[in-house]
Amino acid sequence: MIDSYGRNINYLRISITDLCNLRCRYCMPEKGIEKIPHNEILRLEEIEELARIFVSLGVNKIRITGGEPLIRKGILNLIENIGRIEGLKDFAMTTNGIFLKKYARNLKNAGLNRVNISLDTLNEKKYRDITKGGDIKEVLEGIEEAKKVGLTPIKLNVVLIGGLNEDEIKDFVNLTKNENIDVRFIELMPIGQAKDWSLDKFISNKIVLEKVKELKEIIKEDISSPARYYKLPNSKGKVGLINPISCKFCDNCNRIRLTADGKIKTCLHSNAEIDLRIPLRMGEDLRKIITEVVINKPKEHNLENGEYIERNMTTIGG
Ligand code: SAM
Ligand code: SF4
Protein backbone atom coordinates (compact mmCIF):
# COMPACT_ATOMS: atom_id res chain seq x y z
CA MET A 1 0.00 0.00 0.00
CA ILE A 2 1.47 3.30 -1.08
CA ASP A 3 0.17 6.46 0.60
CA SER A 4 -0.22 9.84 -1.04
CA TYR A 5 3.35 10.82 -0.04
CA GLY A 6 4.83 7.76 -1.75
CA ARG A 7 5.56 5.83 1.46
CA ASN A 8 5.18 2.05 1.32
CA ILE A 9 2.96 1.15 4.29
CA ASN A 10 3.93 -2.41 5.14
CA TYR A 11 4.07 -2.50 8.95
CA LEU A 12 1.01 -3.10 11.15
CA ARG A 13 1.05 -2.89 14.94
CA ILE A 14 -1.91 -4.55 16.64
CA SER A 15 -2.88 -3.85 20.24
CA ILE A 16 -4.77 -6.98 21.31
CA THR A 17 -5.84 -5.81 24.77
CA ASP A 18 -6.08 -2.59 26.72
CA LEU A 19 -5.43 -4.45 30.00
CA CYS A 20 -2.12 -4.97 31.76
CA ASN A 21 -0.69 -6.83 34.72
CA LEU A 22 1.64 -3.91 35.57
CA ARG A 23 0.99 -0.28 36.39
CA CYS A 24 3.98 1.59 34.99
CA ARG A 25 3.74 5.03 36.52
CA TYR A 26 3.90 6.91 33.21
CA CYS A 27 1.40 4.65 31.46
CA MET A 28 -1.37 3.29 33.71
CA PRO A 29 -3.20 4.77 36.68
CA GLU A 30 -2.92 2.67 39.85
CA LYS A 31 -6.52 1.50 39.69
CA GLY A 32 -6.18 0.67 35.99
CA ILE A 33 -7.84 2.44 33.11
CA GLU A 34 -11.54 2.48 32.40
CA LYS A 35 -12.06 -0.79 30.58
CA ILE A 36 -13.33 -0.78 27.03
CA PRO A 37 -16.64 -2.73 27.08
CA HIS A 38 -16.05 -6.39 26.25
CA ASN A 39 -18.13 -6.39 23.06
CA GLU A 40 -16.13 -3.47 21.70
CA ILE A 41 -12.83 -5.35 21.96
CA LEU A 42 -11.94 -7.22 18.80
CA ARG A 43 -12.40 -10.98 19.13
CA LEU A 44 -9.37 -13.11 18.30
CA GLU A 45 -10.97 -14.36 15.07
CA GLU A 46 -11.61 -10.75 14.06
CA ILE A 47 -7.98 -9.81 14.70
CA GLU A 48 -6.89 -12.75 12.56
CA GLU A 49 -9.25 -11.82 9.77
CA LEU A 50 -8.05 -8.22 9.78
CA ALA A 51 -4.42 -9.34 9.83
CA ARG A 52 -5.11 -11.52 6.80
CA ILE A 53 -6.70 -8.61 4.92
CA PHE A 54 -3.82 -6.27 5.78
CA VAL A 55 -1.26 -8.83 4.59
CA SER A 56 -3.19 -9.34 1.36
CA LEU A 57 -2.90 -5.57 0.83
CA GLY A 58 0.88 -5.53 1.25
CA VAL A 59 1.64 -5.55 4.98
CA ASN A 60 4.55 -7.94 5.60
CA LYS A 61 5.50 -7.02 9.14
CA ILE A 62 3.19 -7.35 12.16
CA ARG A 63 3.84 -6.53 15.80
CA ILE A 64 1.50 -7.68 18.56
CA THR A 65 1.30 -5.33 21.53
CA GLY A 66 -1.14 -4.05 24.16
CA GLY A 67 -1.69 -3.41 27.16
CA GLU A 68 0.14 -6.59 27.92
CA PRO A 69 -0.36 -9.04 25.04
CA LEU A 70 0.63 -12.09 27.07
CA ILE A 71 -2.36 -11.72 29.38
CA ARG A 72 -4.88 -12.12 26.55
CA LYS A 73 -6.57 -15.52 26.72
CA GLY A 74 -5.92 -17.54 23.58
CA ILE A 75 -2.70 -15.67 22.73
CA LEU A 76 -0.88 -18.76 21.49
CA ASN A 77 -3.68 -19.64 19.09
CA LEU A 78 -3.70 -16.10 17.80
CA ILE A 79 0.06 -16.14 17.24
CA GLU A 80 -0.16 -19.47 15.48
CA ASN A 81 -2.95 -18.35 13.16
CA ILE A 82 -1.35 -15.03 12.27
CA GLY A 83 2.09 -16.64 11.96
CA ARG A 84 0.67 -18.91 9.27
CA ILE A 85 -0.47 -16.10 6.99
CA GLU A 86 1.38 -16.35 3.73
CA GLY A 87 3.30 -13.21 2.85
CA LEU A 88 4.12 -12.24 6.44
CA LYS A 89 7.89 -11.85 6.72
CA ASP A 90 8.46 -10.42 10.19
CA PHE A 91 6.29 -11.24 13.19
CA ALA A 92 7.18 -9.66 16.54
CA MET A 93 5.73 -8.76 19.93
CA THR A 94 6.27 -6.00 22.47
CA THR A 95 5.85 -7.24 26.04
CA ASN A 96 6.75 -6.32 29.59
CA GLY A 97 8.31 -9.78 29.83
CA ILE A 98 6.67 -10.87 33.08
CA PHE A 99 5.09 -13.96 31.47
CA LEU A 100 7.81 -14.51 28.90
CA LYS A 101 9.51 -17.34 30.75
CA LYS A 102 6.26 -19.28 30.65
CA TYR A 103 5.39 -18.48 27.03
CA ALA A 104 8.66 -18.01 25.11
CA ARG A 105 9.06 -21.53 23.79
CA ASN A 106 5.42 -21.85 22.75
CA LEU A 107 5.48 -18.43 21.13
CA LYS A 108 8.49 -19.43 19.09
CA ASN A 109 6.90 -22.74 18.12
CA ALA A 110 3.72 -20.91 17.18
CA GLY A 111 5.61 -18.79 14.66
CA LEU A 112 6.63 -15.59 16.45
CA ASN A 113 10.07 -14.38 15.27
CA ARG A 114 11.22 -12.03 18.02
CA VAL A 115 10.34 -9.90 21.03
CA ASN A 116 10.91 -6.35 22.27
CA ILE A 117 10.91 -6.19 26.05
CA SER A 118 10.21 -3.04 28.01
CA LEU A 119 12.56 -2.62 30.95
CA ASP A 120 13.22 0.82 32.38
CA THR A 121 15.62 -0.13 35.17
CA LEU A 122 17.95 -2.96 36.13
CA ASN A 123 17.38 -2.37 39.81
CA GLU A 124 14.93 -4.65 41.58
CA LYS A 125 13.59 -2.04 43.98
CA LYS A 126 13.25 0.66 41.32
CA TYR A 127 11.50 -1.79 39.02
CA ARG A 128 8.97 -2.59 41.73
CA ASP A 129 8.47 1.13 42.20
CA ILE A 130 8.14 2.13 38.51
CA THR A 131 5.80 -0.74 37.69
CA LYS A 132 3.96 -0.57 41.04
CA GLY A 133 4.70 -4.11 42.12
CA GLY A 134 6.44 -5.91 39.24
CA ASP A 135 9.19 -8.44 39.97
CA ILE A 136 12.24 -7.83 37.79
CA LYS A 137 13.44 -11.41 38.32
CA GLU A 138 10.55 -12.63 36.20
CA VAL A 139 11.51 -10.28 33.37
CA LEU A 140 15.18 -11.25 33.51
CA GLU A 141 14.27 -14.94 33.45
CA GLY A 142 11.94 -14.20 30.55
CA ILE A 143 14.76 -12.54 28.61
CA GLU A 144 17.00 -15.57 29.19
CA GLU A 145 14.28 -17.92 28.00
CA ALA A 146 13.63 -15.79 24.92
CA LYS A 147 17.34 -15.95 24.08
CA LYS A 148 17.40 -19.68 24.64
CA VAL A 149 14.49 -20.44 22.32
CA GLY A 150 15.66 -17.99 19.64
CA LEU A 151 13.10 -15.17 19.87
CA THR A 152 15.89 -12.98 18.59
CA PRO A 153 17.31 -10.42 18.04
CA ILE A 154 16.03 -9.18 21.39
CA LYS A 155 15.45 -5.48 21.80
CA LEU A 156 15.13 -3.86 25.20
CA ASN A 157 13.03 -0.69 25.29
CA VAL A 158 14.08 1.74 28.02
CA VAL A 159 11.99 4.87 28.59
CA LEU A 160 14.31 7.54 30.00
CA ILE A 161 12.83 9.35 32.97
CA GLY A 162 14.60 12.31 34.56
CA GLY A 163 15.67 11.64 38.14
CA LEU A 164 14.84 7.98 37.85
CA ASN A 165 17.03 6.00 35.50
CA GLU A 166 19.59 8.29 33.86
CA ASP A 167 22.14 6.93 36.37
CA GLU A 168 21.70 3.49 34.75
CA ILE A 169 22.44 4.49 31.16
CA LYS A 170 25.94 3.05 31.25
CA ASP A 171 24.75 -0.25 32.74
CA PHE A 172 22.18 -0.61 29.97
CA VAL A 173 24.71 0.25 27.27
CA ASN A 174 27.11 -2.34 28.70
CA LEU A 175 24.52 -5.05 28.11
CA THR A 176 25.28 -4.71 24.39
CA LYS A 177 28.98 -5.47 24.83
CA ASN A 178 28.92 -9.24 24.82
CA GLU A 179 25.48 -10.11 23.59
CA ASN A 180 23.50 -9.52 20.46
CA ILE A 181 20.93 -7.39 22.30
CA ASP A 182 19.78 -3.97 21.14
CA VAL A 183 19.09 -1.47 23.89
CA ARG A 184 16.84 1.37 22.74
CA PHE A 185 16.41 4.51 24.81
CA ILE A 186 13.03 6.12 24.22
CA GLU A 187 12.16 9.66 25.22
CA LEU A 188 9.22 9.91 27.60
CA MET A 189 6.15 11.40 25.90
CA PRO A 190 3.56 13.53 27.71
CA ILE A 191 0.71 11.11 27.09
CA GLY A 192 -1.10 8.66 29.37
CA GLN A 193 -0.19 9.24 33.01
CA ALA A 194 2.89 11.26 32.03
CA LYS A 195 0.63 14.00 30.61
CA ASP A 196 0.77 15.98 33.84
CA TRP A 197 4.32 15.15 34.88
CA SER A 198 6.78 17.92 35.67
CA LEU A 199 9.18 19.02 32.93
CA ASP A 200 12.27 17.69 34.70
CA LYS A 201 11.11 14.11 34.01
CA PHE A 202 11.30 14.69 30.23
CA ILE A 203 14.94 14.37 29.31
CA SER A 204 16.47 14.28 25.85
CA ASN A 205 18.16 11.02 25.02
CA LYS A 206 21.18 13.00 23.86
CA ILE A 207 22.22 12.40 27.44
CA VAL A 208 23.13 8.83 26.42
CA LEU A 209 25.83 10.12 24.06
CA GLU A 210 27.04 12.58 26.69
CA LYS A 211 27.38 9.84 29.29
CA VAL A 212 28.89 7.18 27.03
CA LYS A 213 31.39 8.96 24.81
CA GLU A 214 32.64 5.73 23.19
CA LEU A 215 29.36 5.25 21.30
CA LYS A 216 29.75 5.75 17.54
CA GLU A 217 26.88 6.15 15.14
CA ILE A 218 26.41 3.35 12.62
CA ILE A 219 24.49 3.29 9.36
CA LYS A 220 20.93 2.07 9.77
CA GLU A 221 20.03 -1.19 8.10
CA ASP A 222 16.35 -0.22 7.96
CA ILE A 223 15.55 3.39 7.06
CA SER A 224 12.00 3.07 8.35
CA SER A 225 13.26 2.33 11.88
CA PRO A 226 12.58 5.26 14.22
CA ALA A 227 15.88 4.60 16.03
CA ARG A 228 19.31 6.04 15.31
CA TYR A 229 21.83 3.34 16.06
CA TYR A 230 25.21 3.49 17.80
CA LYS A 231 27.77 0.95 18.91
CA LEU A 232 30.50 0.55 21.45
CA PRO A 233 33.79 -0.52 19.85
CA ASN A 234 33.61 -4.28 19.15
CA SER A 235 30.25 -4.71 20.87
CA LYS A 236 27.89 -7.41 19.67
CA GLY A 237 24.69 -5.45 20.18
CA LYS A 238 23.59 -1.93 19.28
CA VAL A 239 22.29 1.08 21.16
CA GLY A 240 19.28 2.85 19.66
CA LEU A 241 18.01 6.31 20.39
CA ILE A 242 14.36 7.01 19.69
CA ASN A 243 13.30 10.60 20.09
CA PRO A 244 9.78 10.99 18.76
CA ILE A 245 9.58 14.61 19.81
CA SER A 246 12.92 16.17 18.95
CA CYS A 247 13.61 14.14 15.82
CA LYS A 248 10.93 13.31 13.29
CA PHE A 249 10.99 10.12 11.29
CA CYS A 250 7.68 10.79 9.52
CA ASP A 251 9.26 10.89 6.02
CA ASN A 252 10.15 7.22 6.29
CA CYS A 253 7.21 6.09 8.42
CA ASN A 254 5.83 2.78 7.14
CA ARG A 255 3.48 1.94 9.99
CA ILE A 256 -0.18 1.84 10.81
CA ARG A 257 -1.87 0.74 14.01
CA LEU A 258 -4.92 -1.26 14.94
CA THR A 259 -6.29 -0.50 18.42
CA ALA A 260 -7.74 -3.10 20.76
CA ASP A 261 -11.24 -1.85 19.89
CA GLY A 262 -10.72 -2.12 16.16
CA LYS A 263 -9.80 1.42 15.15
CA ILE A 264 -7.14 1.99 12.53
CA LYS A 265 -4.71 4.80 13.26
CA THR A 266 -2.38 5.96 10.54
CA CYS A 267 -0.31 8.13 12.91
CA LEU A 268 0.42 7.39 16.57
CA HIS A 269 0.33 11.09 17.37
CA SER A 270 -2.97 11.92 15.74
CA ASN A 271 -6.43 11.55 17.27
CA ALA A 272 -7.85 10.57 13.88
CA GLU A 273 -9.13 6.98 13.86
CA ILE A 274 -11.31 4.96 11.52
CA ASP A 275 -13.47 2.19 12.92
CA LEU A 276 -13.00 -1.22 11.29
CA ARG A 277 -14.90 -3.28 13.87
CA ILE A 278 -18.42 -2.30 12.82
CA PRO A 279 -17.76 -2.56 9.05
CA LEU A 280 -16.12 -5.93 9.72
CA ARG A 281 -19.15 -7.15 11.67
CA MET A 282 -21.47 -5.79 8.96
CA GLY A 283 -19.55 -7.66 6.24
CA GLU A 284 -18.48 -4.49 4.42
CA ASP A 285 -15.60 -4.32 1.95
CA LEU A 286 -12.69 -3.67 4.29
CA ARG A 287 -10.04 -3.73 1.57
CA LYS A 288 -11.54 -0.59 0.08
CA ILE A 289 -11.88 1.15 3.46
CA ILE A 290 -8.30 0.29 4.49
CA THR A 291 -6.79 1.37 1.17
CA GLU A 292 -8.53 4.74 1.39
CA VAL A 293 -7.48 5.28 4.99
CA VAL A 294 -3.87 4.47 4.16
CA ILE A 295 -3.80 6.83 1.20
CA ASN A 296 -4.80 9.60 3.60
CA LYS A 297 -2.05 8.92 6.15
CA PRO A 298 -0.93 12.35 7.35
CA LYS A 299 2.39 13.70 6.15
CA GLU A 300 3.76 14.24 9.66
CA HIS A 301 2.89 14.71 13.31
CA ASN A 302 2.72 18.00 15.12
CA LEU A 303 4.18 17.16 18.52
CA GLU A 304 6.58 20.07 18.51
CA ASN A 305 3.53 22.36 18.65
CA GLY A 306 2.16 20.48 21.64
CA GLU A 307 -0.49 18.42 19.83
CA TYR A 308 -0.63 15.23 21.87
CA ILE A 309 -3.09 12.37 21.64
CA GLU A 310 -5.87 11.81 24.12
CA ARG A 311 -5.90 8.01 24.07
CA ASN A 312 -3.92 6.04 26.59
CA MET A 313 -0.91 4.12 25.18
CA THR A 314 -2.38 0.81 26.38
CA THR A 315 -5.10 0.78 23.74
CA ILE A 316 -2.68 1.74 21.00
CA GLY A 317 0.35 -0.23 22.07
CA GLY A 318 3.07 2.38 21.63
N1 SAM B 1 2.90 -3.84 27.91
C1 SAM B 1 3.83 -3.94 26.86
C2 SAM B 1 5.15 -3.32 27.22
O1 SAM B 1 5.21 -2.57 28.21
O2 SAM B 1 6.12 -3.59 26.50
C3 SAM B 1 3.35 -3.37 25.53
C4 SAM B 1 2.55 -2.10 25.55
S1 SAM B 1 3.38 -0.65 26.14
C5 SAM B 1 2.09 0.56 26.01
C6 SAM B 1 4.44 -0.30 24.76
C7 SAM B 1 5.56 0.66 25.02
O3 SAM B 1 5.04 1.96 25.21
C8 SAM B 1 6.42 0.35 26.25
O4 SAM B 1 7.77 0.19 25.86
C9 SAM B 1 6.24 1.57 27.12
O5 SAM B 1 7.40 1.85 27.85
C10 SAM B 1 5.90 2.64 26.11
N2 SAM B 1 5.21 3.79 26.68
C11 SAM B 1 4.06 3.84 27.37
N3 SAM B 1 3.77 5.10 27.74
C12 SAM B 1 4.78 5.88 27.27
C13 SAM B 1 5.06 7.29 27.33
N4 SAM B 1 4.27 8.14 27.94
N5 SAM B 1 6.20 7.73 26.72
C14 SAM B 1 7.05 6.88 26.08
N6 SAM B 1 6.81 5.54 25.99
C15 SAM B 1 5.71 5.05 26.58
FE1 SF4 C 1 1.58 -2.20 31.09
FE2 SF4 C 1 3.30 -1.80 29.12
FE3 SF4 C 1 1.85 0.26 30.12
FE4 SF4 C 1 3.74 -0.83 31.61
S1 SF4 C 1 4.03 0.25 29.67
S2 SF4 C 1 1.63 -0.34 32.28
S3 SF4 C 1 3.67 -2.92 31.03
S4 SF4 C 1 1.05 -1.48 29.03
UniProtKB/TrEMBL annotation:
<feature type="binding site">
    <location>
        <position position="189"/>
    </location>
    <ligand>
        <name>S-adenosyl-L-methionine</name>
    </ligand>
</feature>
<feature type="binding site">
    <location>
        <position position="67"/>
    </location>
    <ligand>
        <name>S-adenosyl-L-methionine</name>
    </ligand>
</feature>
<comment type="pathway">
    <text>Cofactor biosynthesis; molybdopterin biosynthesis.</text>
</comment>
<dbReference type="GO" id="GO:0061799">
    <property type="term" value="F:cyclic pyranopterin monophosphate synthase activity"/>
</dbReference>
<protein>
    <recommendedName>
        <fullName>GTP 3',8-cyclase</fullName>
        <ecNumber>4.1.99.22</ecNumber>
    </recommendedName>
</protein>
<keyword id="KW-0411">Iron-sulfur</keyword>
<feature type="binding site">
    <location>
        <position position="267"/>
    </location>
    <ligand>
        <name>[4Fe-4S] cluster 2</name>
    </ligand>
</feature>
<dbReference type="Pfam" id="PF06463">
    <property type="entry name" value="Mob_synth_C"/>
</dbReference>
<feature type="domain" description="Radical SAM core">
    <location>
        <begin position="4"/>
        <end position="227"/>
    </location>
</feature>
<feature type="binding site">
    <location>
        <position position="94"/>
    </location>
    <ligand>
        <name>GTP</name>
    </ligand>
</feature>
<keyword id="KW-0342">GTP-binding</keyword>
<dbReference type="GO" id="GO:0051539">
    <property type="term" value="F:4 iron, 4 sulfur cluster binding"/>
</dbReference>
<comment type="subunit">
    <text>Monomer and homodimer.</text>
</comment>
<feature type="binding site">
    <location>
        <position position="24"/>
    </location>
    <ligand>
        <name>[4Fe-4S] cluster 1</name>
    </ligand>
</feature>
<dbReference type="InterPro" id="IPR013483">
    <property type="entry name" value="MoaA"/>
</dbReference>
<dbReference type="InterPro" id="IPR050105">
    <property type="entry name" value="MoCo_biosynth_MoaA/MoaC"/>
</dbReference>
<dbReference type="GO" id="GO:0005525">
    <property type="term" value="F:GTP binding"/>
</dbReference>
<feature type="binding site">
    <location>
        <position position="118"/>
    </location>
    <ligand>
        <name>S-adenosyl-L-methionine</name>
    </ligand>
</feature>
<feature type="binding site">
    <location>
        <position position="250"/>
    </location>
    <ligand>
        <name>[4Fe-4S] cluster 2</name>
    </ligand>
</feature>
<keyword id="KW-0479">Metal-binding</keyword>
<dbReference type="InterPro" id="IPR040064">
    <property type="entry name" value="MoaA-like"/>
</dbReference>
<feature type="binding site">
    <location>
        <position position="155"/>
    </location>
    <ligand>
        <name>GTP</name>
    </ligand>
</feature>
<dbReference type="InterPro" id="IPR006638">
    <property type="entry name" value="Elp3/MiaA/NifB-like_rSAM"/>
</dbReference>
<feature type="binding site">
    <location>
        <position position="253"/>
    </location>
    <ligand>
        <name>[4Fe-4S] cluster 2</name>
    </ligand>
</feature>
<dbReference type="InterPro" id="IPR010505">
    <property type="entry name" value="MoaA_twitch"/>
</dbReference>
<feature type="binding site">
    <location>
        <position position="63"/>
    </location>
    <ligand>
        <name>GTP</name>
    </ligand>
</feature>
<feature type="binding site">
    <location>
        <position position="26"/>
    </location>
    <ligand>
        <name>S-adenosyl-L-methionine</name>
    </ligand>
</feature>
<dbReference type="GO" id="GO:1904047">
    <property type="term" value="F:S-adenosyl-L-methionine binding"/>
</dbReference>
<dbReference type="InterPro" id="IPR000385">
    <property type="entry name" value="MoaA_NifB_PqqE_Fe-S-bd_CS"/>
</dbReference>
<feature type="binding site">
    <location>
        <position position="27"/>
    </location>
    <ligand>
        <name>[4Fe-4S] cluster 1</name>
    </ligand>
</feature>
<comment type="similarity">
    <text>Belongs to the radical SAM superfamily. MoaA family.</text>
</comment>
<dbReference type="GO" id="GO:0061798">
    <property type="term" value="F:GTP 3',8'-cyclase activity"/>
</dbReference>
<dbReference type="InterPro" id="IPR007197">
    <property type="entry name" value="rSAM"/>
</dbReference>
<keyword id="KW-0949">S-adenosyl-L-methionine</keyword>
<dbReference type="Pfam" id="PF04055">
    <property type="entry name" value="Radical_SAM"/>
</dbReference>
<feature type="binding site">
    <location>
        <begin position="255"/>
        <end position="257"/>
    </location>
    <ligand>
        <name>GTP</name>
    </ligand>
</feature>
<comment type="function">
    <text>Catalyzes the cyclization of GTP to (8S)-3',8-cyclo-7,8-dihydroguanosine 5'-triphosphate.</text>
</comment>
<dbReference type="GO" id="GO:0006777">
    <property type="term" value="P:Mo-molybdopterin cofactor biosynthetic process"/>
</dbReference>
<keyword id="KW-0004">4Fe-4S</keyword>
<keyword id="KW-0547">Nucleotide-binding</keyword>
<keyword id="KW-0456">Lyase</keyword>
<dbReference type="GO" id="GO:0046872">
    <property type="term" value="F:metal ion binding"/>
</dbReference>
